[in-house]
Amino acid sequence: MSNTAIYTYTKPFELENGKKLRKIEIAYQTYGRLNAKKDNVIWACHALTANSDVLDWWKGLFGNNYLFNPDEHFIICANVLGSNYGTTNPLSVNPVTGQPYYLAFPEFTIRDLVAAHRLLAAHLQIQDIKVLIGGSLGGQQALEWSISDNKKIENLIIMATNAVHSPWGIAFNESQRMAITADRSFYAQQPDGGLKGLKAARSIALLSYRTYEAYSTTQLESVNDKTCSFRASSYQNYQGEKLCKRFNAYSYWYLTKAMDSHNVGRGRTSIADALALVKANTLVIGIENDVLFPLSEQEFLAKHIPDASFQSIKSAYGHDGFLIETNTLTNIIGNFLKESTNKKIIKLHKTA
């Protein structure tokens, strides 16, 4: 059983920077049913331009006959604040002006995305989360949630992510925003503003999501006499146009800024001390040739999160491997959850 809904939080929603949204709407989807013990909740946090339909974009890991299936689990995925898939975002109507926010929308952080998730969890009367999982921006959310509300998360699975967004990652995002703002229509206060810039931004992003090897395999020319109209050129254009058909430049601009804001040490003693607050059984997964989130970032997480497990995987797709290598991930995550269950049983026996 699946359910698509929008939760409206009617009180002012205060952001980390002190600014407020008069109200927020959160689009979300649930699959399956909450069991009698209320201990079968799987909460998936999505990445930059994904949506709440986790069975679609993480097929192979989520869905019927897969590891996280609706027959066994109660699966929840919420669209993040600022995204244009039903949650309050820059194209939403500003109640003060009666017009879309556009660039009047307040900037927000990863912690604000998590705060919205927590409001939804309270609305759904979710007390405990058996598995909180996410990759990339979704991993940043899951990690922050496991620090800020560390008693509710039993198992944390984060992949291709980090404790603080790197100067390298910020530089990639700033380059994308430069492309967007170079498109003068971005300032035109129109829903389709900045789309040419967004197309270029997506092309930049793809270079950080994939690898030299991936392009050599999928975009290599079969003839030697070409001087133009290369497959790689067509691919970049196609992917840029594809995103423009389903996303908007304003949400993209704000969400990349939110990713840049990610630093679990902000307002806390240190990054290491913040990671030490995680109480969940944690699995950290890295991708060996991830250009955007190098393996060293996941190794750092595993080192500083208490008793965390660490696994690295190989993928020709680089960073995007966390969405594609679902067979490998199923084996790694499945074994981790079995071990976690066994540890829980042993602990109960010892306290009995």
Automatic annotation (TrEMBL):
Location relative to the cell: Cytoplasm
Catalytic activity of the protein: L-homoserine + acetyl-CoA = O-acetyl-L-homoserine + CoA
Residues annotated to bind substrate: R202, D320
Primary enzyme class: transferase
Amino-acid biosynthesis listed as a keyword: yes
GO cellular component, one term: cytoplasm
Molecular function terms, GO-annotated: homoserine O-acetyltransferase activity
Functional summary from the UniProt entry: Transfers an acetyl group from acetyl-CoA to L-homoserine, forming acetyl-L-homoserine.
Family note: Belongs to the AB hydrolase superfamily. MetX family.
Assembly description: Homodimer.
Protein known as: Homoserine O-acetyltransferase
